[in-house]
Amino acid sequence: MLAVHFDKPGGPENLYVKEVAKPSPGEGEVLLKVAASALNRADLMQRQGQYDPPPGASNILGLEASGHVAELGPGCQGHWKIGDTAMALLPGGGQAQYVTVPEGLLMPIPEGLTLTQAAAIPEAWLTAFQLLHLVGNVQAGDYVLIHAGLSGVGTAAIQLTRMAGAIPLVTAGSQKKLQMAEKLGAAAGFNYKEEDFSEATLKFTKGAGVNLILDCIGGSYWEKNVNCLALDGRWVLYGLMGGGDINGPLFSKLLFKRGSLITSLLRSRDNKYKQMLVNAFTEQILPHFSTEGPQRLLPVLDRIYPVTEIQEAHKYMEANKNIGKIVLELPQ
Length: 332
Prior knowledge:
Distance between the termini: 11 Å
CATH topology of the largest domain: Quinone Oxidoreductase, Chain A, domain 1
Helix content: 25-40%
Shape: globular
CATH class of the largest domain: Alpha Beta
Low-confidence stretches: none
Structural class: alpha/beta
Number of helices: 10
Radius of gyration: 20 Å
């Protein structure tokens, strides 16, 4: 089968598509013939040599995919049959023509969505769902500040925040991105290149601050985050795009706010946890991708590339231009 590959860590120019052995499904696993796979920041970091796959996972890039069930491994419970369309949360391996998946990490594709659209759901939407509900304990009426609000996770988080009855606020780096955020349901958006998002947030919340922050930036934002956190607020850190170092009185400022700093990753969690997350998401959220009306959820796709243009896809994501997801289509 064809798969995305790189021989040594480095820039996008190291990526190419090559012929590799097709995997076989193990106990309780399904072989998925991949139609499409979306790009995530983790793919860029892995290519740069900064983020190894979890033990036992494929070293091929790709944390989510959609396609057709091609084969059932021994011990499958009968939920899936050959030919079914499905989308999958993966620890790696999605950017290839075939990938093996524990059957509990497959989800049905919502009615009305294409395989390409579905590929943009698993990693981004499950991450946003996990951060808001399982980690951040979002409540109706909460102000939620979402950094990188127009990333894949950000566009999902805006919609899921609204669905929870909370009020999404976002940061982004362009007017175009902020306009899209408002279309998706953000109550306000702040251009971090032109204004202090912390002061703007305090002004919008009439001095109260935000109850929950979803933060994939880290180090460079710590002071502004603590500044605009409400009393007893929760600050959920799930990425370090702005670095991992802190210099200053973080603890005293956080203590003063009685704030909670919680960290979370999804890729490294065990299959039991991921299965619980997939089940909850499938029951509570998935139907809303197919319902007509104001509550309808929508995966936001920016660009679609054939997998042979993997270098261009990585360059585009690295330039931070994307609004929503970048999807790769695999040859059928």
